[in-house]
Amino acid sequence: MSMLSSFAQLDRKFAWSFLGFVLAAVFGGIAIYTEFIRDNSPVITYEILNNTKILDVKEDVGGLSIIYNNEDIRKSRKTLSVLTVKISNDGRSPILKTYYDNASPLGLTLNSGEIIKGEIVNATTPYLQENAKLKIIGPLTAEFSDVIIEPNESYIAKFLVLNPENAALTVTPKGKVAGVKKIIAIDQFTKPKKQSFLILVYSGSFLVQLARLPSYFFGFIFSLAIVFGPIAIISESLQKRKRRKVIKQFSSYSEGAYDAANKMIYDFYTEHGLPILLRIKNATASDERFSKFIQAYKKTGEDPEKSDDEIYDPAVQLAIGTLPHERRRGISPSFMVKRLLAFEIISRQGEDFVKNEEKLKAMVEFVDFAVIKEA
Fold this sequence. Notes:
By secondary structure, this protein is an alpha+beta fold.
């Protein structure tokens, strides 16, 4: 039986619909992930947007002096740099004023040089534009004001730095904010360029793509088995338990009068359910229908003793004989005859078959009872 047929069978078994169950499981999993697994805490990110030397004379030029604060910075091997830092909340919850620790304010520290000037030059909201401030508290350190930063909001700080010309200028975040595990520093000029999703998916030669196909295919099949396999096993176990309960109820209802005759039918019903038993009942409901069914079976030329004892996949079987609906629904005539012989509901008499009325009555009583209980 194909996987799609198995899913369709599960969908027919339950009144609440297998597809509905799958959707509930998917959305339930999303809800569990959202509420219990996904990190909803705020995330502070320092993104270095610009780190540029505005004074960078490569060659010694006689008579050239650049004086700052009574110091010739050319002779001191220093340079002026512009540093632009974007401070943003990339998390899923806001940063409130009460989250800041006054003993360890939010800010940054440079690795070398001296901060000459600093200011907030831009922000994503008017509130941040007005209230976000910075204060230089030392040659290498600046601190930011305690402001509310909603998710995906940010402000930009710009610094003028006097630093050694041969030293790379780096930024180290400082401060403590409640709920923030770590302040992340990203340098746009040193981080590797992010590749697009399509490039990541389709990068590689034709042979590389060809080699990926089997892993994709078997990975997909394995994922389906992991997701739906346990569901199918559990649902089948529950169905068998329910069927055994129906058998017990029928035995009590009939005071066990049909138990001996129906023993094999009980076992078959526990494993396969009602559909096949209903077709057996319909095929033997009257002498006329039974005669037409046997004629259809004889036209197939199949021997029930040699045929495989299986239920055919309805998706791949073709209609045959004068009862094409039986094949379309997934049951071959030889299979039906073999079941009838195994249940001893019919027996051979030369080239013909005759019904055992006593066992047929026992089966009909049980099938009718089970239909009511499963309704």
